[in-house]
Write a structure and sequence with these properties.
InterPro entries: NAD(P)-bd_dom_sf, SDR_fam
Pfam family, one: adh_short_C2
Protein name: L-rhamnose-1-dehydrogenase
Number of domains: 1
Helix content: 25-40%
Number of strands: 7
CATH class: Alpha Beta
Distance between the termini: 41 Å
CATH topology: Rossmann fold
Keywords: Oxidoreductase
Oligomer: single chain
Family: Belongs to the short-chain dehydrogenases/reductases (SDR) family.
Length: 278
Protein backbone atom coordinates (compact mmCIF):
# COMPACT_ATOMS: atom_id res chain seq x y z
CA UNK A 1 0.00 0.00 0.00
CA UNK A 2 1.46 3.35 -1.07
CA UNK A 3 1.96 5.94 1.63
CA UNK A 4 0.13 9.27 1.22
CA UNK A 5 2.14 12.15 -0.23
CA UNK A 6 2.43 14.87 2.40
CA UNK A 7 4.22 17.65 0.51
CA UNK A 8 2.37 17.90 -2.79
CA UNK A 9 2.69 21.40 -4.24
CA UNK A 10 5.44 22.44 -1.82
CA UNK A 11 8.71 24.01 -2.94
CA UNK A 12 11.73 23.14 -0.81
CA UNK A 13 15.37 24.18 -0.71
CA UNK A 14 18.17 22.14 0.85
CA UNK A 15 21.80 23.17 1.29
CA UNK A 16 24.40 20.43 0.98
CA UNK A 17 21.80 18.25 -0.68
CA UNK A 18 23.85 15.98 -2.94
CA UNK A 19 25.23 13.64 -0.27
CA UNK A 20 24.48 12.23 3.16
CA UNK A 21 21.63 13.59 5.23
CA UNK A 22 20.74 16.35 2.77
CA UNK A 23 20.42 13.89 -0.09
CA UNK A 24 18.19 11.56 1.91
CA UNK A 25 15.89 14.42 2.88
CA UNK A 26 15.76 15.73 -0.70
CA UNK A 27 14.77 12.34 -2.08
CA UNK A 28 12.06 11.86 0.53
CA UNK A 29 10.67 15.32 -0.18
CA UNK A 30 10.46 14.32 -3.83
CA UNK A 31 8.70 11.08 -2.89
CA UNK A 32 6.15 13.18 -1.03
CA UNK A 33 5.44 15.36 -4.05
CA UNK A 34 7.58 18.44 -3.40
CA UNK A 35 9.70 20.32 -5.89
CA UNK A 36 13.26 20.58 -4.60
CA UNK A 37 16.20 22.93 -5.08
CA UNK A 38 19.63 21.61 -4.10
CA UNK A 39 22.62 23.73 -3.21
CA UNK A 40 26.09 22.17 -3.46
CA UNK A 41 29.61 23.56 -3.34
CA UNK A 42 30.39 22.91 -7.01
CA UNK A 43 33.54 21.76 -8.75
CA UNK A 44 34.43 18.59 -10.60
CA UNK A 45 34.24 16.50 -7.43
CA UNK A 46 30.55 17.27 -7.07
CA UNK A 47 29.54 16.28 -10.58
CA UNK A 48 29.37 12.49 -10.04
CA UNK A 49 27.21 13.10 -6.95
CA UNK A 50 24.98 15.50 -8.88
CA UNK A 51 24.47 13.09 -11.76
CA UNK A 52 23.73 10.12 -9.51
CA UNK A 53 21.31 12.23 -7.47
CA UNK A 54 19.44 13.36 -10.59
CA UNK A 55 19.24 9.77 -11.80
CA UNK A 56 17.80 8.60 -8.49
CA UNK A 57 15.42 11.57 -8.36
CA UNK A 58 14.22 10.91 -11.93
CA UNK A 59 13.34 7.34 -10.98
CA UNK A 60 10.85 8.72 -8.44
CA UNK A 61 8.87 10.67 -11.04
CA UNK A 62 6.02 9.33 -13.19
CA UNK A 63 7.09 7.79 -16.48
CA UNK A 64 7.81 10.48 -19.06
CA UNK A 65 7.89 13.29 -16.50
CA UNK A 66 10.87 15.62 -16.93
CA UNK A 67 13.08 15.79 -13.84
CA UNK A 68 13.73 19.49 -14.56
CA UNK A 69 10.15 20.21 -13.50
CA UNK A 70 10.87 18.84 -10.04
CA UNK A 71 14.56 19.41 -9.27
CA UNK A 72 17.04 22.24 -9.76
CA UNK A 73 20.63 22.37 -8.56
CA UNK A 74 22.69 25.42 -7.68
CA UNK A 75 26.45 25.50 -7.15
CA UNK A 76 27.87 27.96 -4.65
CA UNK A 77 29.84 28.26 -1.43
CA UNK A 78 27.20 28.59 1.29
CA UNK A 79 29.68 30.34 3.59
CA UNK A 80 29.46 33.41 1.32
CA UNK A 81 26.66 35.86 2.23
CA UNK A 82 25.46 36.13 -1.37
CA UNK A 83 25.12 32.37 -1.96
CA UNK A 84 22.08 31.90 0.25
CA UNK A 85 20.30 34.81 -1.40
CA UNK A 86 21.16 33.63 -4.90
CA UNK A 87 20.11 30.07 -4.09
CA UNK A 88 16.70 31.15 -2.79
CA UNK A 89 16.17 33.39 -5.82
CA UNK A 90 17.15 30.54 -8.13
CA UNK A 91 14.57 28.21 -6.56
CA UNK A 92 11.80 30.80 -6.62
CA UNK A 93 12.48 31.63 -10.27
CA UNK A 94 12.84 28.01 -11.39
CA UNK A 95 9.51 26.94 -9.95
CA UNK A 96 7.53 30.12 -10.64
CA UNK A 97 4.23 29.33 -12.36
CA UNK A 98 4.31 30.00 -16.10
CA UNK A 99 3.13 33.51 -16.89
CA UNK A 100 3.16 34.57 -13.25
CA UNK A 101 4.58 37.95 -12.28
CA UNK A 102 5.21 36.87 -8.70
CA UNK A 103 8.65 36.19 -7.24
CA UNK A 104 7.84 32.51 -7.05
CA UNK A 105 7.75 30.76 -3.72
CA UNK A 106 9.60 28.76 -1.11
CA UNK A 107 7.68 26.71 1.44
CA UNK A 108 10.36 24.63 3.15
CA UNK A 109 14.05 25.32 3.71
CA UNK A 110 16.58 22.90 5.18
CA UNK A 111 19.92 24.36 6.28
CA UNK A 112 22.03 21.22 6.14
CA UNK A 113 25.43 22.05 4.65
CA UNK A 114 28.26 21.47 7.08
CA UNK A 115 31.84 20.34 7.50
CA UNK A 116 33.53 18.34 10.24
CA UNK A 117 37.24 17.60 10.23
CA UNK A 118 38.37 16.05 13.50
CA UNK A 119 41.38 17.72 15.14
CA UNK A 120 43.12 17.88 18.51
CA UNK A 121 42.26 21.10 20.33
CA UNK A 122 45.82 22.13 21.11
CA UNK A 123 46.86 21.57 17.50
CA UNK A 124 43.81 23.07 15.83
CA UNK A 125 44.75 25.76 13.31
CA UNK A 126 43.01 29.14 13.02
CA UNK A 127 42.29 28.28 9.38
CA UNK A 128 40.36 25.10 10.23
CA UNK A 129 38.44 26.90 12.96
CA UNK A 130 37.46 29.75 10.64
CA UNK A 131 36.48 27.42 7.79
CA UNK A 132 34.27 25.37 10.10
CA UNK A 133 32.66 28.47 11.57
CA UNK A 134 32.12 30.04 8.15
CA UNK A 135 30.32 27.04 6.68
CA UNK A 136 28.43 25.63 9.65
CA UNK A 137 27.38 28.82 11.43
CA UNK A 138 27.74 31.83 9.13
CA UNK A 139 26.50 29.82 6.14
CA UNK A 140 23.44 28.68 8.08
CA UNK A 141 22.69 32.24 9.18
CA UNK A 142 22.92 33.76 5.69
CA UNK A 143 20.90 31.00 4.05
CA UNK A 144 18.18 30.96 6.69
CA UNK A 145 17.93 34.74 6.55
CA UNK A 146 17.43 34.61 2.77
CA UNK A 147 14.81 31.87 3.12
CA UNK A 148 13.01 33.79 5.85
CA UNK A 149 12.88 36.94 3.72
CA UNK A 150 11.36 35.04 0.80
CA UNK A 151 8.77 33.31 3.00
CA UNK A 152 7.82 36.55 4.76
CA UNK A 153 7.22 38.32 1.43
CA UNK A 154 4.88 35.55 0.28
CA UNK A 155 2.39 36.31 3.07
CA UNK A 156 1.13 32.76 2.80
CA UNK A 157 -1.48 31.52 5.30
CA UNK A 158 0.69 28.41 5.67
CA UNK A 159 3.75 30.54 6.49
CA UNK A 160 6.66 28.21 5.92
CA UNK A 161 9.02 25.79 7.61
CA UNK A 162 12.74 26.26 8.20
CA UNK A 163 14.74 23.33 9.53
CA UNK A 164 18.30 23.58 10.80
CA UNK A 165 20.35 20.41 10.88
CA UNK A 166 22.15 20.66 14.20
CA UNK A 167 23.67 17.64 15.96
CA UNK A 168 23.75 15.67 19.19
CA UNK A 169 27.10 17.49 19.42
CA UNK A 170 25.13 20.62 20.35
CA UNK A 171 24.36 18.91 23.65
CA UNK A 172 27.59 17.08 24.47
CA UNK A 173 31.29 17.80 24.16
CA UNK A 174 33.81 16.26 21.81
CA UNK A 175 37.52 16.37 22.52
CA UNK A 176 38.43 16.43 18.83
CA UNK A 177 35.42 18.56 17.87
CA UNK A 178 36.05 21.76 19.81
CA UNK A 179 35.65 23.76 16.61
CA UNK A 180 32.57 21.81 15.46
CA UNK A 181 30.34 21.42 18.53
CA UNK A 182 29.95 25.19 19.09
CA UNK A 183 28.69 25.63 15.53
CA UNK A 184 26.03 22.96 16.00
CA UNK A 185 24.95 24.52 19.27
CA UNK A 186 24.78 27.75 17.29
CA UNK A 187 22.44 26.23 14.69
CA UNK A 188 20.11 25.03 17.44
CA UNK A 189 20.13 28.47 19.05
CA UNK A 190 19.62 30.13 15.66
CA UNK A 191 16.44 28.12 15.11
CA UNK A 192 15.15 29.03 18.56
CA UNK A 193 15.68 32.74 17.94
CA UNK A 194 14.31 32.57 14.39
CA UNK A 195 11.17 30.89 15.74
CA UNK A 196 10.58 34.08 17.73
CA UNK A 197 11.65 36.49 15.01
CA UNK A 198 9.64 34.84 12.23
CA UNK A 199 6.60 33.62 14.14
CA UNK A 200 4.61 36.71 13.19
CA UNK A 201 4.85 35.57 9.56
CA UNK A 202 3.64 32.07 10.40
CA UNK A 203 7.10 30.65 9.72
CA UNK A 204 8.04 27.70 11.90
CA UNK A 205 11.72 27.16 12.73
CA UNK A 206 13.00 23.93 14.27
CA UNK A 207 16.19 21.92 14.49
CA UNK A 208 16.97 18.26 13.97
CA UNK A 209 19.78 16.80 16.07
CA UNK A 210 21.18 13.66 14.46
CA UNK A 211 23.23 11.27 16.52
CA UNK A 212 25.92 9.18 14.90
CA UNK A 213 24.73 9.00 11.30
CA UNK A 214 27.08 7.21 8.92
CA UNK A 215 27.97 9.75 6.21
CA UNK A 216 31.05 10.89 4.33
CA UNK A 217 31.82 13.32 7.19
CA UNK A 218 32.59 10.56 9.70
CA UNK A 219 33.58 7.74 7.37
CA UNK A 220 37.23 7.83 8.42
CA UNK A 221 36.43 8.05 12.12
CA UNK A 222 34.01 5.12 11.99
CA UNK A 223 36.52 3.00 10.06
CA UNK A 224 37.97 2.34 13.53
CA UNK A 225 36.10 -0.86 14.42
CA UNK A 226 36.55 -0.32 18.16
CA UNK A 227 35.04 3.19 17.90
CA UNK A 228 32.12 1.96 15.79
CA UNK A 229 31.42 -0.95 18.14
CA UNK A 230 31.51 1.40 21.15
CA UNK A 231 28.94 3.73 19.61
CA UNK A 232 26.69 0.83 18.68
CA UNK A 233 26.86 -0.53 22.24
CA UNK A 234 25.94 2.85 23.70
CA UNK A 235 23.01 3.32 21.30
CA UNK A 236 19.87 1.68 22.75
CA UNK A 237 18.64 0.71 19.28
CA UNK A 238 21.97 -1.05 18.74
CA UNK A 239 23.06 0.44 15.44
CA UNK A 240 24.49 3.49 13.75
CA UNK A 241 22.08 5.83 12.04
CA UNK A 242 21.67 6.00 8.28
CA UNK A 243 20.94 9.21 6.34
CA UNK A 244 17.43 7.93 5.56
CA UNK A 245 16.69 7.94 9.31
CA UNK A 246 16.68 11.75 9.12
CA UNK A 247 14.22 11.97 6.24
CA UNK A 248 10.99 11.10 8.08
CA UNK A 249 11.53 13.70 10.83
CA UNK A 250 12.33 16.30 8.14
CA UNK A 251 9.06 15.48 6.35
CA UNK A 252 7.19 15.80 9.66
CA UNK A 253 8.57 19.29 10.28
CA UNK A 254 7.94 20.34 6.67
CA UNK A 255 4.27 19.34 6.73
CA UNK A 256 2.01 21.84 8.47
CA UNK A 257 -0.79 19.28 8.69
CA UNK A 258 1.47 17.30 11.04
CA UNK A 259 3.48 20.01 12.79
CA UNK A 260 1.58 23.31 12.50
CA UNK A 261 2.11 24.15 16.18
CA UNK A 262 5.72 23.01 16.40
CA UNK A 263 8.30 25.79 16.38
CA UNK A 264 11.44 26.54 18.35
CA UNK A 265 11.75 22.82 19.00
CA UNK A 266 14.70 20.45 18.77
CA UNK A 267 14.23 16.82 17.82
CA UNK A 268 16.92 14.27 18.61
CA UNK A 269 17.25 11.56 15.98
CA UNK A 270 19.91 9.43 17.59
CA UNK A 271 18.61 5.95 18.35
CA UNK A 272 18.59 6.89 22.04
CA UNK A 273 22.31 7.60 22.23
CA UNK A 274 21.99 10.87 24.17
CA UNK A 275 19.96 9.43 27.05
CA UNK A 276 22.50 6.62 27.41
CA UNK A 277 25.45 9.01 27.58
CA UNK A 278 24.33 10.47 30.89
Amino acid sequence: MALPQLLVGKVAGITGGLTGIGRAIALDYLRHGAKVGINHLGGSGDEPHRMSFLKEAAALQPTGESIERHVVTFAGDISKPETGRQFVEHIATAFKPTGSESRGRLDVFVSNAGVCQFAEFLELSPQLFQETLATNMSGAFYAVQAAGRQMALQQSPAGGSIIGISSISALVGGGRQTHYTPTKAGVKSLMQSCAIALGKYGIRCNSLLPGTIRTQLNETDLADEAKRAYVERRTPLGRLGQPKDMAGPAVFLACEELSSFVTGAELLVDGGLYVNLQ
